[in-house]
Design brief:
By secondary structure, the protein is an alpha+beta fold. Helices cover about 45% and strands about 15% of the residues.
């Protein structure tokens, strides 16, 4: 059958290389990992070895020096193959904080090892159980004591810690009542999870509806060398927010990849499945939902490209990034429902991979930012409506 992504011709070689790599990890591989709740170690290792996870790292530090457009294509194709970028995607969007705000010494020390795969930067700790997305209310506190910061607090939904060497941590360094603006007094630290020895750090895995390794983390007088402060003390929230546009664009690309996977799976089944002596895809009741879902994936794909191109051109892209993430998450979820409905009972069978991908793409209605928060952002910052919270 024909390629359903009209943009395949763009970055054809990149896409083809990724499809060949991902093709080595078929349905059986992902089902085995699902059954064992295992991390796809071999898959991530191959992506790293091929240099794909170092796409955004400049060539001078051993990376590919590509733009966000290309990075988004990489994650799109991973999900388009039936795999799950959630196992390793954070390295792409965490990277911006270190790239744009880290010291030259930090970049020389860490980036070449991250690019080669010697180190993994896959985890970041921002969310807390009582603050959610109200990040200015962060309670985790890092107190400066000589050449170290001593951290106390709690984080939640901190993913890939067991499979990462480095973690970015956002903590308050000045009490909120002592700052002029509540957005000030927060700082970012690069935490070496191995060299810390685990002293003062407790990690508790959280069982969840997808095979996505995530944790609750407790800091009890946990020490971080002062040299691991990223950028200026007290400016950390700005650094984190700076990377969120990239995060939303890349997640949008993953949703687009999921959308194409669901559409492709659906149209093949609708052609092959015969009921009442005719393929079910001959019925308009089957055709129309598939066609509408496809149209919405195409629209989301176009918005993803617009947002990524604005980002690469260093143009304001917050609105475009938010719209891209919103449309792509909605389109992938619509395509998932159409796919499941078209397959009927078979859609619930693990061997078809639909129920797994169904659960995986559902996450993006909620994370890394919920659809309601995106709508609030657009209402206030783009449409000029009164702030709702």
């Amino acid at each position: 059958m024909a390629e359903i992504n009209p943009r395949f011709i763009q970055h054809r070689e990149l896409r083809q290389s990724l499809r060949e790599l991902c093709g080595q990890f078929g349905s059986d591989y992902w089902q085995r990992n699902e059954e064992k709740s295992a991390y796809p170690e071999e898959f991530v290792a191959e992506l790293t070895k091929a240099g794909w996870l170092a796409a955004l790292i400049p060539e001078q530090y051993g990376g590919a020096g590509l733009g966000l457009v290309e990075a988004s294509v990489i994650l799109e194709e991973v999900n388009r193959s039936g795999a799950n970028s959630g196992a390793c995607h954070a390295q792409m969007y965490i990277m911006g904080t270190l790239l744009r705000h880290g010291s030259e010494e930090q970049k020389r020390k860490y980036l070449p090892q991250i690019a080669s795969g010697e180190l993994r930067l896959q985890s970041f700790a921002v969310t807390e159980p009582t603050t959610g997305t109200d990040t200015t209310k962060t309670k985790t506190f890092a107190a400066r004591k000589g050449d170290r910061y001593v951290v106390n607090g709690q984080k939640v939904w901190i993913s890939r810690m067991q499979h990462s060497d480095l973690m970015l941590l956002l903590a308050r360094t000045t009490p909120v009542e002592q700052v002029a603006k509540k957005t000030e007094g927060l700082s970012v630290f690069l935490v070496d999870l191995h060299r810390s020895g685990g002293a003062g750090l407790t990690v508790r895995p959280i069982r969840n509806m997808v095979n996505h390794e995530t944790n609750e983390v407790f800091f009890d007088n946990f020490e971080i060398p002062a040299e691991n402060l990223v950028g200026e003390e007290g400016k950390g929230l700005r650094y984190i927010l700076d990377g969120m546009n990239a995060e939303r664009i890349l997640i949008a690309a993953e949703c687009v990849g999921d959308g194409y996977w669901f559409i492709d799976k659906t149209r093949k089944y609708a052609n092959d499945r015969v009921v009442f002596d005719r393929p079910i895809g001959q019925n308009q009741g089957i055709q129309f939902p598939i066609a509408r879902a496809y149209a919405n994936v195409l629209a989301a794909d176009a918005m993803r490209y617009e947002a990524a191109q604005l980002f690469d051109a260093a143009q304001p892209c917050a609105a475009a990034a938010n719209v891209a993430k919103l449309l792509a998450a909605d389109a992938s979820w619509e395509a998932a429902n159409v796919c499941l409905q078209t397959h009927g009972g078979f859609g619930f069978a693990s061997e078809y991979d639909i129920e797994r991908k169904f659960r995986e793409t559902r996450l993006y209605q909620v994370a890394p930012i919920s659809t309601n928060l995106i709508l609030s952002y657009l209402a206030e910052h783009v449409l000029g409506l009164p702030r709702s919270f």
